[in-house]
Amino acid sequence: MARLADELKMNRPFSLVEEEAALSILRTADVFQQRMTEVLKPFDLTAAQYNVLRILRGSPDGLPCGHIAERMISRDPDITRLLDRMEARGWISRERSSTDRRVVTARVLPAGLNILEQLDPLIARHLRRYLEALGEKKLRQLIDLMELVRETTKN
Q1: What pLDDT, on a 0 to 100 scale, did the predictor assign at position 2?
Q2: According to the model, what pLDDT value does residue 155 have?
Q3: Which CATH number goes with the domain that contains 81?
């Protein structure tokens, strides 16, 4: 098993275990992002677009655009432009509220749901391929540890 220092071709050991842990998290996230990009590429879909479709599928009545931004895995500072591109491709629709013109609600359209339906088994296979070796107990521990890290970084 490759050690992070070897992967990064470091000439000296990490000075802090916290540094090694942080870089390991970042490196692992990057590897997952690259693999996810490979799965999404044939659909001409970005990870952010997939994330929006996934979020909206879970809210059939739609969500205000600001709520979508809050739920994104990776924050996109220009959610409006992202949604513009998705609407132009027929994956989502947006509607301005008649009671509060500042609120725009986005909904996933059948074309967006169709993409998700095709992607679901591919994503599941992708995740299993890279994570099933850990087993459920270790995966639960990993989830707990990542949640703890996120909690401590909120301050």
Answers
A1: 52
A2: 67
A3: 1.10.10.10
Q: Quote the domain boundaries for residue 92.
A: 44-135
In a domain, 19, yes or no: no
Q: Is 94 within the bounds of a domain?
A: yes
Cα–Cα distance, 19 to 116 (Å, whole number)? 37
Give a yes or no: residue 129 inside a domain.
yes
Identify whether 59 is part of a domain: yes
The 3-class secondary structure across the chain, one letter per residue, is CCCHHHHCCCCCCCCCHHHHHHHHHHHHHHHHHHHHHHHHHHHCCCHHHHHHHHHHHCCCCCEEHHHHHHHCCCCCCCHHHHHHHHHHCCCEEEEECCCCCCCEEEEECHHHHHHHHHHHHHHHHHHHHHHHHHHHHHHHHHHHHHHHHHHHCCC
Q: The tokens of 43 are what? A: 């659909």
pLDDT per residue over 82-110, tens digit each? 999 999 999 999 998 788 878 889 999 99
User: What stretches in the chain show pLDDT beneath 70?
Assistant: 1-2, 155
